[in-house]
Amino acid sequence: MGHCNKVEVLGVLFPMTDYSNTDPGMLQFINQFYAAPQVGFEAVGLDNARAMLDAFPDMVDLPAVEVGDVRDIEVTGADGPLKARLYVPENAKPNSPALIFYHGGGWVMGGLDSHDRPCRRICAVGDIVVLAVDYRLAPEHTFPAAIDDAQAAFHWVCAHADELGVDKTRLAVGGDSAGGNIAASIALSLRGDAHGEPALQFLLYPALQPFGDMPSHKKFGQGYALDIADMNFFITSYAGKNANEINDVRLWPLLADNFNNVPPAYIITAGQDPLQDDGSKYANALEKVGVNVKLKHYPTMTHGFCSMTTLSPDALQALEDAARYVGAALRRLDVK
Q: I want to staple 208 with a disulfide (CB 3.0 to 4.6 A). Which of 52, 191, 270, 278 is the partner?
C-alpha cells in the first residue's frame, strides 16, 4: 500500500500503512495482532492484557537458554520487599559485572516470567550476572512507584554486592520500553549518589518523552502493534490523564536540564516503532555533552522485537550483539 490515503484515529490523521520495509517476521506478528477479536491492550482489559504478555514468550520467543544458576530472591523496594530473579552465568567469578533489568509492559504489565528468556540470553551471551526486578505496576501503584522501586532495588544491590557476587562499581541498569524509561530515569537521578551509581545504561526502544508530538509518534502510531490508543492507555494508567503535561524528569528523562555525567549508553531503536525518535533524541542529547553512546537502529523492526526471536533471526542477532557489548563494556576497567 502507498501513503496516498490517510485514516483518522482519535483525531489524528495517519498514513495508510506501508509494510514494504517491514521484517517478514514482524509483519507476521502485526497481522496476528490486528486479526484478534479485540485489538489493543485497553480493549481487551487489563487482566487479559497481563495474561497475554505472560503468554507472549511461548508464541514469539525462542526457548529459554540455560545459564549457570537461576534463583528467585527478594530485594528491598521503596515500600517493602519486591520479587526479583537472579541469573548467574556459567563459571561466574566473584565481583562479576551485572545488569539490573527492569521489564517492559507499559508500566502496567509484565514481570519476571514475561522477560525471563531475554534475561537468560543476556546473562549467557554477555557472560554477566542479571538481576530482574519485579517493580510495582500501575494502575494499582502509579508514578513514581516504579521509579522509586527501581532506585531502591539499585541501592539494595549496592549494599548486598558481596553476597550476590557482583562488583557494585560495574552495575548497568537496563530495560525495554517502559523498563527503558525506568532505567534512564534512575541513571539520571543516581548521578553522584553516595550509595553507588550505574556504570552503563542499556535501553531497548525506551519511552523517554511526552507522547504524541515527535514524527515517529505520528508516522508509526497506527498499524504497527503499538498504537496511539495503547500508548495513551499506558501513560494515563501510570501517571494520570495529564501525564503528557507533567514536567518531571523522573517521568520523562528527556526533559532533563542537563545530561552531564550520566553513564554511557547502549540504545536500541526500531525503524517501525512510534518510540524510535525517543531513543535517537536521547542518544543525541548524551553525545552533545560527551557521553559515550552506542546507538543501534534496526530499520525493519517493530517495537519489542528483541523478545520476538522466533519470528526473526535479526531479532536474535540484535539481542545477542547487545548482550556481548554490555558484557564487554562492563568488564573494561575504563567503562566510563
A: 278
Q: What is the CATH number of domain 24-331?
A: 3.40.50.1820
Residue 303 a catalytic site member: yes
What does the alpha-carbon distance between residue 60 and residue 140 come to, in Å, rounded to a whole number?
28
112, three cell numbers: 519476571
The pLDDT of residue 333 is 52
Q: What is the pLDDT of residue 130?
A: 98
Catalytic residue among 273, 278, 307, 312: 273
Active-site residue, 3 included = no
Q: Which residues pair with 270 in a beta bridge?
A: 298
pLDDT for the residue numbered 12: 47
Written as nine digits, the cell of 188 is 539520571
**Confidence grade of residue 323 (pLDDT, cut at 50, 70, 90):** very high
Grid cell 528527556 is found at 254
Does 273 participate in catalysis according to the annotation?
yes
User: With 60 as the cut, is the pLDDT of residue 239 above it?
Assistant: yes
Identified catalytic residue from 96, 114, 177, 307: 177
CA 314 distance to own-chain centroid: 18
- Candidate list 115, 141, 155, 303, residue with the active-site label: 303
Q: What is the mean pLDDT of residues 297-302?
A: 98
Mean predicted confidence (pLDDT) in 123-139: 98
- If pLDDT is split at 50, 70 and 90, which confidence band does 17 have? confident
Number of Cβ within 10 Å of residue 136's Cβ equals: 18
